[in-house]
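hi support,

uploading two proteins for the ticket. first:
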Amino acid sequence: MDNGFADIGKVYDVESLREELTGVDLGWAQGVTIHHTAYPNLDMRPKGFTVQLIRNAAWGYKNDRGFSAGPHLFVDEDQAFGMCPLGRPGVHAKSFNQTHIGVELLGDYDSNYEVNSARGRQVVANGARIVAAICVSQNWDESSVNMHRNDPKTSKTCPGAHFPWTDFKQRVASELEDREEITRDPVDSEAVRERIAHIEWQLAQMKQLL
């Protein structure tokens, strides 16, 4: 495989993806584009993705379609599997290849059954966490996330006619808010600063009494 498929074999949970992103230059990107695999669907992959499945998909992208790269990440309910390196554009949506990271979610979300299944909801939730990790690394908000079907050059419904887009965006926004609370410097809190100032005043008064 050439460089457009060099991340095959990398597997991330949210925390390890955050660590990976600290060493990746995403200066080329402006956001994230969401896709669904459609085929395979959830029933076809009862245990999620495997590295071999990603390798097989890459072979098809390169040899059947003539692509120089593929999407960046393939997400199931537990993990994210790499394909195209995050530090360079991939191939996943004509209008967004040069500006957006391509994230494929396992499942066929043209199907109401898969959208409403327990696994489908789990994939959507994990996808939101993965996308939020990318957004946090670049100081992007949820407005930087779009869908393949937003591409004016496609007629596809991807990531599915029934994909829960509003819920997905809200999940990403919630993950971003939670992460902001975790990473915020407590000294930036006005209440904390006031408390510190009060303690310092008390110490000063005590020294005068000694």
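and the second one:
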Amino acid sequence: MNRRFVFAAIVILGGMGGCFESHTNVQELRGTDCVLCHSDDYDATAMPIHSAPTVGFPTTCADCHRTTDWYPALGGLHPSPNTFRNATNLNDTFLIDKSSANPNQHKNIPCLSCHDLDTPRPPDPVPRGWDTNCIGCHPNDAHLQDAHRGVTPANGTTYQYRADVPNFCLSCHPQGTAEGHPTSVFPLRGEHNRGCASCHDRATGPDTAGANTNCTQSGCHPNEDRHHGEVGKYSADKAGPWPRPDLNARNFCRMCHRSGGGGD
């Protein structure tokens, strides 16, 4: 089936209201084809203006509109990086690009996959990201539970998964990013391929730079003297009670085993 036939089918059988639902036999119809019939609508739209060269609205109508009707629709373009600055001048724009400076997974995802048009609009001033639905892609599964076990947000409250607030993730992740484990520094492989809370004690602080790592009291390395008798100066330089109280009692292993390997 060629594009000319597809175009004719759309014109004869209907417009935006039913093209994707009533004409399932037109297999070649894609989101990029909407503008074939709706270029006049695109050009005539003034609130907000779509067609001005500097505006940048895409001609892929289904990015912001349902395929059953024009309304409701998303309110506008996504803010670009560095658009918003908070009181401490930190960027809190939700990042949807992917570059070497900002690697993240929120790229090439349809707008309506993250924004729910059925979310009631709150009263003014409308908060940013008010219609965002995070939990559709981030369910309360075992991985998410492990990553957040013992986490205390900046406001001092205990972390709680809020299925009743679909965008609650934004309160701690306003940019849509989360720090991953530094596999180039401490790879999660072999015996260290385990859950976050097995090694990190969030009660002692955040995960930053492994400061809350618990090597000796986690049950994994309670006393390693038996393995270090042949290590030169180990006994003399590190003599004393185990674990050493003058070092970080829980993660002092990392002084010699920075990447978690026995041969470091």
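thanks. also noticed: Residues 3-13 form the longest helix (11 residues).
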